[in-house]
């Protein structure tokens, strides 16, 4: 098991140039990273705007799909 590589908490695959990994909340460890695409899907599915583990509101606006910062 390669536990050193960063993987998406949803789909369990690594980040790529096309689909980089983000860390939109304050979780650490294996659940730290998520694809933007996977996060959007999760947000749609769960209808939540915050992480259910750390309760941190995602620094992410699905409508501004290219920007994950708070600008
Ligand atoms: Zn993913
Ligand atoms: Zn979190």
UniProtKB/TrEMBL annotation:
PROSITE patterns, A to Z: ZF_RING_CH (PS51292)
Superkingdom of the organism of origin: Eukaryota
Swiss-Prot/TrEMBL keywords: Acetylation, Endoplasmic reticulum, Membrane, Metal-binding, Transferase, Transmembrane, Transmembrane helix, Ubl conjugation, Ubl conjugation pathway, Zinc, Zinc-finger
Biological or metabolic pathway of the protein: Protein modification; protein ubiquitination
Cross-referenced Pfam families: RINGv
Gene3D superfamilies, A to Z: Zinc/RING finger domain, C3HC4 (zinc finger) (3.30.40.10)
Subunit structure: Interacts with DIO2. Interacts with SQLE.
Name this polypeptide is given: E3 ubiquitin-protein ligase MARCHF6
Organism per entry: Amphiprion ocellaris (Clown anemonefish)
């Amino acid at each position: 098991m390669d536990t050193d590589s960063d993987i998406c908490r949803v789909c369990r695959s690594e980040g790529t140039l096309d689909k980089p990994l983000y860390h939109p909340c304050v979780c650490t460890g294996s659940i730290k990273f998520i694809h933007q695409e996977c996060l959007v899907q999760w947000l749609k599915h769960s209808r939540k705007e915050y992480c259910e583990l750390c309760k941190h509101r995602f620094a992410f606006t699905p409508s501004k799909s290219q920007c994950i910062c708070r600008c």
